[in-house]
Amino acid sequence: MIKIPFTNIKIGVSDIKSETSEVKNNSNFELGGVKTYGPSYPIITKTFDGEKTLGELGIVISSIPDYRRLRLRMYDAYLKTDTAKILVDKHVDWTIGSGLKLQSEPNETILDMEGLVLDYPKYQKTVEARFNLYANTKYFDYSEQKTLHQIANDVYKSVFLGGDGLVVCRFGKYGLNVQFIQAEHIKDPIVTDPLFEEAKEKGNYIKHGIEFDSKGKQVAFYVERYSVDEPFGKFERIPVYGETSGRKLAWMVYGQKISPDHVRGIPEMAQTLEKLTKLDRYTEASVSKAEQAANIVYAIEHEAYSTGEDPVADKMAQKLKLASNEVDSYELANGLAQRMTETTSGTTYNMVPGSKLKDFKTDIETNYEQFERANFTKISAAANVPAEVALQSYNSNYSASRAAINGWGFVVNIDRNDFALDFYIPIFKLWLEYEILKGKVNAPGYISALQNDDFMIVEAYSKCRFIGKNMPHIDPLKEAKAIELMLDKNLISYEQATEMLNIGEWNENYANRVEEDKVISENTPIVEPLNTSSNEVV
């Protein structure tokens, strides 16, 4: 028996059939005291988990990232697989390359509203000159081994491969120092470590090497270090905020996070790891098979009526036959083959009846490129790299190649902006505060804003962006004409045009051009015009 919702009657299967037929004939009727309009069926409540047909999607899996194993697998793939190296290096080289350049852009509107008088061109020039100079020295590095841009390359590459990493800022003899700690060193201390109890006493908890407070805010990181005195490793607690300054001096830089609730990141190419490995094995097997096949020059093919003899292996037997008095057509042909060999200095085989000599070849050489390119294209797309860019092979027309470059440039700009927010900009703000406090940069009202926690003024002075080189041009002449047209229509500034063409800084270029024009005018000899009124013949 089935009970129809919202009614007080029960009907059987036969009743349902008769009721259904009645419903089809009558659009309006009463069922259990409820007036309905049109066909009425029982309401069935069913949960939907994405599966329309039972069993098609299989069991529901809640995947929990194994950060350590994913990281190690990705490192191993980068070491052994050329496809992984190609895609990772393209991301690093094109996104960061020789480093991102600071463009100081203080918010004039906010500063003017606060009544602060600032010589903006001079401020920008001073800040950019001092930061760009310091960034290209090794004093920015905690160990004084690399420049800031080289550290940026390490950070971006490690985050791409390992999922995340820790940036730690300190202040030394020359100013701000930056240290990068790779993801594998950030882990939970052992349960018996006193650090666990200390965190618990503060009302905090430790998860995957990160200490959180009751609000879920990151307050410290735990780094395992090895030394002569600690051969088995010892954990160091690195607080997020400085004890005296209160500034954020340590933070995580993340790559791909599957869920905002996850506290660690995973490699950017984690989803293609298995396909990468299988494609690499296929490539190695294809090359190996082609190499082995190349060693087999010919193969003997026998027909159904062939005697099955091997003209090469039976050569000795043929010579023994010649010693007897028997002479047949095969021996005559063999003698002809011998004379051809002597005459042409080439090898000639006298095949037995029903057999022929064929080139030995396999289909793997002809099918490999199509199969490998199809899979490489999909893996490249998953890594947000166009296959043409990854292989540096632009075989299409100008429009198609330019579209691929522009699409790649869009991805690179997004990555640059994200990385600048995670790495460059926090470092720049700390450096700028240090420079202003030392009196190296003039910023009226900045120090009082720090004392009064007026973040608007602080952020107005710190506003900036970091830029990298634009995408190379397929046809430089077409690009130059397009930019010239945009300048004529006042759509872009001279500075933007200079950035788009990758030809340095407009201010510097203009100043140099003025000086060059002066030198040219001073060293150009003055030529007196000819006196055309004179009758003298020169």
Termini Cα gap: 127 Å
Mean pLDDT: 81
Helix content: 40-55%
The largest sheet, given as strand count, sense and whether it forms a barrel, is: 4 strands, antiparallel
Q: Can you count the beta strands?
A: 15
Tell me the Rg in angstroms: 39 Å
Q: Which strand-content bin applies to the residues?
A: 5-15%
Stretches where pLDDT is under 50 for at least 5 consecutive residues are 1-26
Question: In which order are the strands of the major sheet placed?
Answer: 8-9-10-11
Label the overall shape: extended
Task: Give an account of the 3D structure.
By secondary structure, the chain is of the alpha+beta class. 46% of the residues lie in helices and 13% in strands. The protein has a four-stranded antiparallel β-sheet with strand order 8-9-10-11, covered by helices on one side. The protein has a three-stranded antiparallel β-sheet with strand order 7-6-12, with helices on one face. The chain has a two-stranded antiparallel sheet with strand order 1-2. β3 and β4 form a beta hairpin. α2 packs across α3 (82-95), α3 (82-95) packs across α6 and α8 (273-294) packs antiparallel against α11. The protein is extended. The model is unreliable at 1-26 (pLDDT under 50).
